[in-house]
Amino acid sequence: MAMCYNILDMLNTSRFLNKSSFFNTFCSVVLMLVSFNIFSQNSEHGARFELDKDIQMSTASYDSIKSKDSLNIQMKGTITDVCQAKGCWMKVNLADNNEVFVRFKDYGFFVPTDSAGKEVVINGLAFVEEMSVEDQRHYATDKGAGEEEIQKITQPKRTLHFEASGVRISER
Predict the structure, then answer these.
(1) What domains are there in the chain, each with its CATH number?
(2) Is the model's pTM score more than 0.70?
(3) What is the number of other CB atoms lying within 10 angstroms of the CB of residue 159?
(4) Secondary structure class of 154 (helix, strand, coil)
(5) Residue 72 pairs with which residues in a beta bridge?
């Protein structure tokens, strides 16, 4: 703070500005710059990652995964659905019109609940899972499905899953 006052004394040949207004202006500019930096990174969630040259855009990589195996990859697609309770999961449609259910590593981060329709790159582990009736109903409830739709879920379902350590959502 003393440094700000010294700079003011050196620069202030007229007495239009007093030290407190200069300090307030200086702090406001710093706060705006910090805020801009925070909001410009709003599309990244979880751990930062470098984009691979060969980002997967289809579920072809799932063909090589056996039960209880996983594959560390990046995938690109369109977000079709997001947990409306808090953004703790999302569904991503890939280029081959297959959908991948995405959860976030260690429940450590979430995505905005209004992310549906945006392009996304996810980094992490791809795996296959049989989703129980109970879990399917839980996720349907999170999605906001009605009781009639929830009661139609009666069979376990083989699903393509992804545990994302990082997510990059396009701002388009």
Answers:
(1) 2-40 (no CATH), 45-169 (2.40.50.110)
(2) no
(3) 17
(4) coil
(5) 125
